[in-house]
UniProtKB/TrEMBL annotation, chain A:
Annotated source species: Paenibacillus glacialis
UniProt lineage: Bacteria, Bacillati, Bacillota, Bacilli, Bacillales
Main location: membrane
PANTHER family xrefs: SPORE GERMINATION PROTEIN B3
Protein name, UniProt field: Spore gernimation protein GerC
Similarity comment: Belongs to the GerABKC lipoprotein family.
From TrEMBL, chain B:
Species: Paenibacillus glacialis
GO BP annotation list: spore germination
Protein name in UniProt: Spore gernimation protein
Principal location listed in the UniProt entry: membrane
Topological relation to the membrane, as annotated: Multi-pass membrane protein
Domain of life where this protein originates: Bacteria
Family under the similarity heading: Belongs to the amino acid-polyamine-organocation (APC) superfamily. Spore germination protein (SGP) (TC 2.A.3.9) family.
The keyword Plastid is annotated on this UniProt entry: no
Amino acid sequence: MKRKGLLLCIFIILLIFVTGCWNRRELNDLAIAVGIAIDKSGNQYKVSAQVVEPGEVSGKKGGSVAPVTLYQATGDTILEALRQMTTISPRKIYLAHIRILVLSESLAREGIRDSLDLMSREPETRNDYFIVVAKQATAEDMLKILTNLEKVPSIRLFSTLETSAKQWAPTTTVNLDKLISELVSEGRHPVLTGLNVIGDKKIGESKKNVETVPSPADMQYSGLAVFRKDKLIGWLSDEEGKAYNYIDNNIKSTVGHVNCPDGGKLSLKVIRSNTKVKGSLRDEHPRITIEVQSEANVGEVQCHLDLTKTETIAEVEKLADRKTEEFIEKTIKKVQQEYKIDIFGFGEVIRRSYPKAWKKLKKNWDQTFVNIPVNVKVTHKIPYLGKISNSFLEDMKE
Amino acid sequence: MPENVKISIRQFTVLVMLITIGDSILVLPSIAAFEAKQDVWISGLIGLAVGLLAVYIFSMVGKLYPHLTLVQSIQEIFGKWFGTFVSLMFLFYTFLSVVAHTRETGDFVTSVMMQETPTQAIQILFVCIVIMAVRLGLEVIARTGEIFLPWIIFFFLILVILLSPQAEFEKLQPILENGIKPVLHGSLSCIAFPFMELVVFLMIFPYVNQPQQIRKGFLQGVLLGGIVLIIIITVSILVLGPDHTARSMYPTYSLARRVTVGRFFERVEAMLALMWTLTIFMKVTLYFYIFNLGLAQLLKLKGYRMLTLPVGLLLIVLTPVISPSITYFNKVISKYWPYFDLTYGLLLPLLLLAVYFVRTKFKRSTN
């Protein structure tokens, strides 16, 4: 009996501890941030958080108010600014569901290193969002535009980047871990995709933006920002971005065209592509070989070509090889001459294959990179032509 | 003190495996990768090899007095006064291990999951269950291990299989970038944390029902546990990379956060955290049991159970006392603790063997 009484007492005492989480936060106590934008204002950070309006995105109702709202605060550190938002927002900003982190170009030119520590230290944040740079604009503007198809603009920014990287290739998806590993690496400098607003920003901020068929304002990804360590030093164009992704083996699918011998154009859908970057040493001088193997289908024919002949296919393959080789080589030249830093990770390649030589090379790797000979070899395979073989253009009499 | 319990050799093997995994699964990748970088898997292999050797030595020590626990055989070998002193030192080591592991559990939960919860709340809950398990005795602890094992293996496989698409084998290159030295440095913690701490099993050798199979079971358990650890270490490097592994406090947790299957099976880290909560629980429980048992045997008490509550209180009080901050704690754990482990895991058994043989020889020659 005494034992039972004692047990009962213990159970009652234990009850105090097992009532659930110590500091639980219910869904309606949270301001779920989906996008964060960081600008520099003077010596301080201006942080903007795009927060979802739960009533607007859930269920069938909604429509009267914007699906998201934007809180902004300025502070000496990012965390201070985020916490200062509680003076405007009724709820604490919850960071676990961020989809996109936008850094302004001016901040990027000054250096991004200090803005990233919070994101990797804070236990709430994860590694499943993308980091982009607002091209020639403030970062906060990127979170102000309302969007169609996807109600929450940050989620749309995430999906847009993911889809365009998969299907079109000049953009690249960079998450925090990848960015940090490139920042600390001695043989590679990071790049981030650029983002800007096209159209009328003022209308874009209001509901009118999603009421008309063509949205007056939209956000578009374009170009890759080139960083020297953590400082933005320039931009790559879309084609150069595509070349970057070819070298980085990021191509999932893309479309490109070749000029036919008779002047028209023929476009090719790349179905899969694989790149191998190899380093070699000749008398302590490193050289790089890039081998791309692409499989592409004929997508569109705008010229006279007899696609029923195997020789024609071989000819188109050659044309595609040469064209891809050309723009990859051109991009490498440009980066070597204009930016003079290794964004392609050639240093990492050398480090992996020749760790001993790398110890000497790494001290002034970027100078070495400028003159490094690169050999690009692209092989296309065109296995399929689509639904039809020869184009009807062949049978049309002029 | 007649402690009339018996566990089977299978239970013994399971216990060895779980305690080898113990807290190492959570902290070892980070500590070892700090020194060995991408070659940390080699450190793990070295650790396992040395660990198997150490376990062989443990079983030799156990065979000297198969019916006595370590505390008793220390006194038998070293004599009453010096033996008592060494036993006390050994018990101090076990107790400090219990404190450190409890602290580690609390730190882990507060650092990554429940930031604002007082660590004490978690530790008190944890220690309550540990005390309960220890009061129920070794047989119950061993059976608990058997029940936990399938779950731990299940979660382990889930983690490894779901992360395999994210593995990048080039992260292992270049092999031996800075020579063998950092790898050996890294292997120190790989030897000490999982394997040297197994010395406490010398305290439960007499309770295994088939003493002649102890060595085999011990080696099997260590091999299985070691393989699990090496796989986790390698997966950390393959998925997170050496820099990130060394930088994160709990790389295995970062790994679990990476699990994502088709955008709907994700954010499962809290579930996967169950795996190492269970192994740490087993480790703390066994250490706590051994400390109480050893103390009772040293003080010639009738049973160890009456010690559990006061020692538990002591444990709760000591956890915040042993270190003021996580930086201090991590520094002690990574810089000094391996040597602490080696002192009791290697030096003590070797000393016991040496003294035993010298004494028996001396006795024979005088006879």
